[in-house]
């Protein structure tokens, strides 16, 4: 371990490098870009949840004045199903090519069937209406229970489960010990079934791109995504244009939360641009975002936990069914792999089932799957603790995973900070404070914990010293929550200069080396590794340059406070050489100073959090409000505490929305009935209290600054913390999300019922 | 249909432009006028990312027709800083990490400025209800509310 201590910039709340552009309206998001000769693309989408496409006639649309190009699935590279998986990261291109444009079947309302480019948006929209699609409408299913019935309409006939055509596209399990034996030893066993609704990532910026294809095939993409390299690779695979000919420029991204880790518009706009010879801009409406992108899975989970009288968990079994949407690939790994991980459970079986149904293909959403699983597990943990008459945090501590615990998904934990998060929650001012008088409203407090894997992976950086002795850092992961601020702090710290002398930018695909997409809470972990190694190379060069000037051994030169110094008076008496001076002398002393490093980064330890939530319930209106919230998390090292807190607060706010209001509502016809921000009710400013954070810092020993991923853990415990608080207030448990006013009222008005369904 | 000629004032400067009768003010700002600081998140008046002021009244520019700006005074995020001098709210948002992705930031700042002009000493509850029409999905609002209140306190002290 090589931790930097006595920090000047690491841990400071510096001004983010991209901040000025964002507070003045200068920042260029994807929809803010234009090009000379630009035309507009629009997508024609299926109105049906499930329909065979017999034919598509685009003749009338193509004849409309102003229309420059029309594309259908015939124009998209096909990845035939029978040829087997073609993976790009976690995405199978067989599904991706069918998701961006329906081939033989439309599988959800909103599924693209054709796209048009025209001189104005209005003409493009008009042309879409002129496209004739002959559909054979098929029976459909959306809810998990409907999709797994034996006579359910099958989305993909090729898919077999237990030897029969099925909508269950996959199963995974994590296993430890023998649960049958384990449950025999239990004094208390509680088993419950929970459901959650699909919820959208809810980024405020709709998907957008502007794409130009020159006659020689050279393609430039400006788009909003969580990975310019993902955009380049997927667009290349779906259009046949080689990656070397595609320059994908990452626009500022207006929120993603996982939802921008796949492409929707880019391949279509590329093909339209290629056909028309004009740059094509495409921007989704909010309704398109809600119908055809994301959301995460709806779910049905059953969790059984058994413990002895003295509070030791002896066995647990979780079964997690998650909606994949139209194509296989729901986040069962997160649900089955993360939910029990805070605990050392000798006998465990955690199973995930991937269920296709006629709604949009799921996209990642902040710790994909983990919040869904944790909601079920942490609610049952609360019930078991109550049955044992134990404080819920004491119960968690008694069973906490520690260094040396073997997690069911594989790893033996190194030094982890889970216990510290529980202890910090237990000794927090919040946990000690009385709930206070709700003046007629009922108050309650709940707690819950959560885990997320975190990720490392490929990362590239180039650090260059400018001719005037300042620094430009280029990295390859789109900055979604302040990573540039963290990178500036680290680079300035290592070089011993003011952070304002470090400019951090996100490079495009042709100017920086491959970097995996912004996801898995990898960005600051991975990019600070490559930036640190690049900066260390530069410092080595600077020492060598000073040694050359002083005519001493490079080993006799140290780098401190932004300048080269002799290590001791024995090495010689020289005035320090600053970064500026060495930059000025660079042409004569060996040339430009810069270094790049590319790594497949390893050692991203998982992250743990423990949350405390107070609610207040208006029993007349059924409105549950969160009135106080504290999120505790082991963050490894808070490089920029402001943006670390921001991750915690943002995750908590999303979880409160998921718990209390957000849900996809479907019509009888299988269409989303609330595809806008008025009816899909995300938390607004007046819905929330201040969101307190306690940052526990147990440095990651495998990282030069001790960094652990922080972005995803904060969503994992929230729904359970809110649900447990509501139980504490009402004495009644909810086993379904969201706990929205009509559902709360229903329970309040049915006092004899044990719980709401 | 023929385009309509509109004469208005934007960020203190006289401005003329042509628009379709159906164009929203947001279309005109982001299109013809090339002022892309105002963002479109929903086009239904629910997210507030397109917030501007019309004669000092806070409006969603996606809910206003461009032709309605005729003879009125529009202010957008681009008019908030005076040259290289940031408005105190802009400075405070930077210092207090009151933004993450930045897509809501223009609207948040315009709305917060409108609040402080009306009410220089807002309570936390007043800030929260005033900003309830501006969605932010990244921050959980905590740092935004704190930044607005701290700016208000500093502006009152001056």
From TrEMBL, chain A:
Residues annotated as domain Aldehyde oxidase/xanthine dehydrogenase a/b hammerhead: 24-139
A family per Pfam: MoCoBD_1
Record key words, sorted: Molybdenum, Oxidoreductase
MF-aspect GO terms: iron ion binding; oxidoreductase activity
SMART domains according to UniProt: Ald_Xan_dh_C (SM01008)
Oxidoreductase among keywords: yes
UniProt-recorded name of the protein: Oxidoreductase
TrEMBL record, chain B:
GO terms for MF: 2 iron, 2 sulfur cluster binding; metal ion binding; oxidoreductase activity
Transmembrane segments: none
Domain 2Fe-2S ferredoxin-type: 4-80
Family matches, as PROSITE patterns: 2FE2S_FER_1, 2FE2S_FER_2
Alphabetical UniProt keywords: 2Fe-2S, Iron, Iron-sulfur, Metal-binding, Oxidoreductase
Record-given protein name: Ferredoxin
Upper taxonomic lineage: Bacteria, Pseudomonadati, Pseudomonadota, Alphaproteobacteria, Hyphomicrobiales
């Amino acid at each position: 371990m090589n931790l930097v201590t006595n920090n000047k910039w690491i841990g400071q709340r510096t001004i983010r490098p991209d901040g000025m552009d964002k507070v003045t309206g200068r920042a260029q998001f994807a929809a803010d870009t234009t090009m000379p000769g630009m035309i507009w693309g629009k997508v024609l989408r299926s109105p049906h949840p499930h329909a065979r496409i017999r034919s598509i006639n685009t003749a009338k649309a193509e004849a409309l004045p102003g229309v420059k190009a029309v594309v259908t699935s015939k124009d998209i590279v096909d990845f035939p199903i029978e040829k087997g998986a073609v993976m790009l990261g976690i995405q199978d291109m067989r599904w991706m090519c069918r998701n961006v444009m329906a081939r033989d079947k439309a599988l959800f309302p909103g599924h693209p069937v054709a796209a048009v480019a025209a001189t104005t948006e209005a003409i493009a929209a008009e042309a879409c209406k002129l496209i004739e699609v002959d559909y054979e409408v098929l029976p459909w299913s959306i809810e998990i229970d409907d999709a797994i019935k034996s006579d359910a309409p099958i989305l993909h006939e090729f898919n077999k489960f237990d030897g029969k055509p099925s909508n269950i596209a996959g199963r995974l399990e994590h296993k430890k010990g023998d649960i049958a034996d384990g449950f025999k030893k239990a004094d208390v066993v509680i088993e419950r079934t929970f459901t959650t609704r699909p919820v959208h990532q809810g980024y405020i910026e709709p998907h957008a791109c502007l794409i130009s294809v020159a006659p020689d095939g050279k393609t430039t993409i400006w788009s909003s995504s969580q990975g310019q390299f993902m955009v380049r690779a997927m667009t290349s695979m779906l259009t046949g244009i080689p990656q070397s000919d595609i320059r994908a420029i990452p626009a500022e991204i207006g929120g993603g939360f996982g939802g921008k880790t796949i492409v929707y518009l880019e391949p279509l706009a590329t093909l339209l641009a290629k056909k028309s010879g004009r740059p094509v801009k495409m921007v989704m409406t909010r309704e398109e975002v809600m119908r055809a992108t994301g959301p995460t899975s709806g779910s049905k989970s059953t969790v059984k936990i058994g413990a002895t009288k003295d509070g030791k968990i002896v066995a647990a079994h979780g079964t997690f069914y998650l909606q994949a949407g139209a194509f296989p690939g729901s986040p069962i790994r997160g649900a089955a792999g993360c939910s029990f991980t805070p605990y050392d459970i000798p006998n465990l079986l955690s199973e995930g089932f991937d269920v296709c149904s006629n709604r949009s293909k799921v996209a990642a959403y902040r710790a994909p799957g983990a919040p869904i699983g944790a909601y079920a597990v942490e609610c049952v943990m609360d019930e078991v603790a109550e049955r044992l008459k134990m404080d819920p945090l004491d119960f968690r501590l008694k069973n906490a995973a520690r260094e040396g615990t073997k997690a069911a998904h594989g790893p033996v934990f190194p030094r982890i900070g889970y216990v510290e998060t529980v202890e910090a929650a237990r000794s927090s001012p919040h946990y000690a404070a009385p709930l206070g008088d709700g003046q007629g409203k009922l108050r309650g407090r709940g707690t819950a914990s959560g885990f997320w894997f975190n990720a490392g992976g490929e990362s590239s950086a180039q650090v260059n010293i400018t001719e005037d002795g300042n620094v430009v850092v280029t990295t390859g992961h789109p900055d979604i929550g302040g990573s540039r601020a963290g990178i500036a702090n680290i680079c300035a710290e290592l070089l011993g200069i003011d952070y304002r002398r470090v400019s951090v930018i996100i490079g495009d695909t042709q100017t920086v080396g491959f970097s995996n997409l912004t996801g898995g809470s990898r960005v600051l972990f991975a990019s600070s590794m490559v930036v640190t190694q690049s900066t260390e190379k530069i410092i080595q060069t600077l020492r060598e340059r000073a040694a050359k000037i002083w005519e001493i051994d490079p080993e006799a030169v140290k780098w401190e406070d932004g300048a080269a110094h002799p290590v001791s008076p024995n090495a010689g008496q020289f005035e320090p050489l600053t970064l500026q001076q060495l930059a000025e002398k660079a042409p004569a002393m060996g040339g430009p100073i810069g270094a790049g490093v590319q790594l497949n980064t390893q050692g991203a330890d998982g992250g743990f959090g423990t949350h405390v939530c107070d609610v207040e319930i208006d029993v007349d209106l059924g409105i549950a409000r969160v009135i106080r919230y504290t999120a505790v998390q082991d963050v490894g090292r808070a490089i920029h505490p402001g943006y670390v807190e921001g991750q915690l607060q943002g995750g908590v706010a999303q979880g409160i929305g998921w718990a209390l209001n957000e849900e996809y509502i479907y019509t009888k016809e299988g269409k989303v009935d609330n595809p806008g921000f008025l009816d899909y009710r995300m938390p607004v400013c007046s819905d929330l209290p201040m969101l307190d954070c306690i940052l526990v810092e147990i440095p990651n020993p495998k990282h030069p600054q001790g960094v652990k991923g922080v972005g995803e853990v904060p969503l994992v415990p929230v729904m359970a913390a809110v649900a447990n608080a509501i139980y504490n207030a009402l004495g009644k448990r909810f086993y379904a999300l969201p706990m929205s006013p009509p559902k709360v009222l229903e329970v309040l008005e049915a006092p004899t019922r044990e719980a709401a369904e | 249909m023929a385009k309509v000629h509109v004469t208005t004032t934007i960020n203190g400067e006289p401005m003329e432009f042509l628009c379709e009768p159906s164009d929203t003010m947001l279309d005109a700002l982001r299109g013809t006028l090339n002022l892309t600081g105002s963002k479109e998140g929903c086009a239904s008046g629910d997210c507030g990312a397109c917030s501007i002021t019309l004669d000092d009244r806070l409006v969603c520019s996606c809910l206003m027709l461009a032709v309605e700006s005729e003879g009125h005074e529009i202010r957008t995020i681009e008019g908030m800083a005076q040259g290289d001098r940031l408005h105190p709210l802009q400075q405070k948002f930077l210092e207090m990490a009151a933004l993450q992705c930045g897509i809501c930031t223009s609207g948040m700042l315009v709305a917060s400025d409108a609040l402080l002009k009306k009410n220089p000493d807002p309570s936390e509850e007043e800030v929260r209800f005033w900003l309830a029409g501006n969605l932010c999905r990244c921050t959980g609002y905590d740092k935004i509310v704190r930044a607005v209140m701290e700016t208000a306190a500093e502006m009152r002290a001056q």
